[in-house]
Structures are given as C-alpha cells and as structure tokens.
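testing teh design pipeline on a random one, pls ignore if ur not involved
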C-alpha cells in the first residue's frame, strides 16, 4: 500500500508482495499499460472462479468412488476375518 501511495504502479507493488501468482502479476501489468485494468481484474476473477469450480467438481467426483472403495475393503476384510 505504501508503494502505491508513493506513486508506484500497481503491478510493481503486487509483484513485490510475492503472494500473487505470476499470471496475475503479468495480467495486472498489461492492464495498467493498456488502460484496461478493470477488464483484466474481471478476467482474472472469472479465471480463478473457474479453477475453484473445476477443483470442486473434481473432488466431488472422487468422493463417492472413495467411499465405495472403503466400504468394499471393509466388507471384504470382515468376510476374510
């Protein structure tokens, strides 16, 4: 925040934090240079929301087969015992 208040560009301040992914830093840099920063933030938000959605679908798709495997191993183990 201090860098921005002192007149530095947003991309420099974001890059200095080492918290944001390289894609976000580069997109912010391009957005500042082209004057389309609000559009870049919208696209970044959409991109990361899509990643979260895909991860959620993937984990949900794995949950039921994992439960079935655990139950199957439990039943087979009980029968062998």
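output:
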């Amino acid at each position: 925040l201090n860098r921005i208040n002192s007149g530095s560009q947003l991309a420099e301040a974001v890059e200095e934090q080492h918290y944001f992914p390289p894609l976000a830093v580069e997109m912010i840099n391009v957005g500042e240079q082209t004057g389309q920063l609000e559009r870049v933030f919208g696209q970044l938000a959409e991109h990361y929301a899509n990643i979260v959605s895909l991860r959620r679908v993937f984990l949900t798709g794995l949950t039921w087969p994992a439960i079935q495997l655990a139950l199957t191993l439990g039943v087979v183990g009980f029968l062998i015992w």
